[in-house]
């Protein structure tokens, strides 16, 4: 849908009680708003094109202020600097420049959806992440062309970074479809694996929406607000607050003439899929409860 942002927001963090654990905190943002993604009109198209920079700046400010990340340890891959090769190279760099006690935050904002591809030589159907390209990709060959990256591939790159704990927040349409990619991650069974929690902003059969101005994905915007007002509270509380705020705001938005017309005119949409966005959370060890917002 043209008005809907399919975005991904991924964050890696370490557990702490009242303060960050020993080690350095890092933030990598990956944001891709390609020129081929069009909105309902020229203004919305322009707003969507600028959403990546706006969101990256908001997330950087939020995690620097509320999650104790120094500006000097923030790294940004934005649009033309966020190709498939750029992402692979940055993970290699991070693995060489982070320590076993460090905290790594990863913010990924990109369009995506389910598509076919090959994972370790085998054909699979998986969620895909659209990395930078000028022309609209052919979805039949997008992963082979290294324009889309399978979530499983991104997961493996993330697993390669030897930090202590990882929290992954995905703000994406149908992001709940990735739940089993992380629950069934074979790397997670290894003794050396990072402790992991996963937050997916929408269920597998739901869309993730822009805010009213099409300047940020709504869940991401609500998360930055939630972190700001959650000092001294566990990160799980901020995530719950962001989910609730997103859900309630969408329910209000869906009573406006614009949304009512959209639901009436677009047969692919339902009130449930568009207006009742809820997160899926995979946190097998209660990591989010141990992270304290600063």
Q: How do you describe this structure in short?
A:
With 294 residues, the protein is of the alpha/beta class. It has a single domain, classed as Rossmann fold.
Give your account of this protein's structure.
α1 runs parallel beside α5 and α5 crosses α6 (235-253). α4 links the parallel β7 and β8. Mean pLDDT is 88; it is low at 1-20. The chain has one domain (25-290): Rossmann fold, CATH 3.40.50. It is globular, with a radius of gyration of 18 Å. The strands form 3 sheets. It has a 3-stranded parallel β-sheet with strand order 2-1-3, with helices on one face. The protein has helices at 42-66, 84-97, 151-159, 179-183, 218-228, 235-253, 257-265, 271-275, 287-290; strands spanning 25-31, 74-78, 103-109, 112-119, 122-130, 148-150, 165-170, 195-200, 280-282. Helices cover 34% and strands 18% of the residues. The protein is built from 9 helices and 9 strands. By secondary structure, the protein is α/β, with parallel strands linked by helices. The protein starts with 24 loop residues before the first strand and ends with a helix.
How are the elements arranged and paired?
Blueprint: E1 25-31, H1 42-66, E2 74-78, H2 84-97, E3 103-109, E4 112-119, E5 122-130, E6 148-150, H3 151-159, E7 165-170, H4 179-183, E8 195-200, H5 218-228, H6 235-253, H7 257-265, H8 271-275, E9 280-282, H9 287-290
Parallel strand pairs: 1-2, 1-3, 7-8
Antiparallel strand pairs: 4-5, 5-6, 8-9
């Amino acid at each position: 849908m043209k008005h809907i942002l399919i975005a991904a927001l991924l964050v890696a963090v370490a557990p702490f009680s009242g303060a960050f654990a020993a080690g350095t905190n890092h933030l990598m943002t990956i944001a891709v708003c390609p020129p081929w993604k069009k909105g309902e009109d020229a203004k919305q198209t322009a707003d969507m094109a600028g959403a990546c920079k706006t969101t990256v700046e908001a997330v950087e400010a939020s995690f620097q202020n509320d999650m104790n990340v120094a500006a000097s340890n923030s790294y940004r891959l934005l649009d033309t600097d966020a190709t498939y090769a750029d992402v692979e190279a940055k993970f290699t760099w991070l693995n060489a420049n982070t320590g076993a006690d460090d905290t790594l935050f990863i913010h990924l904002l990109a369009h995506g959806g389910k598509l076919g591809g090959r994972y370790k030589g085998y054909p699979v159907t998986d969620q895909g992440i659209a990395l930078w390209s000028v022309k609209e990709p052919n979805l039949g060959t997008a992963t082979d062309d290294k324009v889309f990256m399978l979530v499983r591939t991104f997961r493996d790159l993330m697993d390669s970074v030897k930090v202590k704990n990882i929290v992954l927040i995905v703000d994406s349409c149908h992001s709940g479809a990735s739940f089993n990619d992380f629950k069934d991650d074979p790397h997670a069974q290894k003794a050396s694996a990072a402790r992991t929690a996963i937050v997916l902003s929408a269920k597998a059969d739901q869309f993730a929406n822009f805010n009213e101005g099409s300047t940020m994905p709504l869940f991401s915007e609500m998360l930055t607000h939630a972190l700001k007002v959650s000092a001294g509270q566990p990160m799980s509380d901020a995530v719950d607050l962001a989910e609730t705020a997103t859900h309630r705001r969408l329910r209000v938005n869906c009573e406006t003439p614009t949304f009512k017309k959209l639901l009436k005119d677009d047969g692919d949409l339902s009130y449930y899929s568009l207006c009742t966005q809820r997160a899926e959370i995979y946190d097998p060890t209660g990591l989010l409860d141990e992270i304290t917002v600063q």
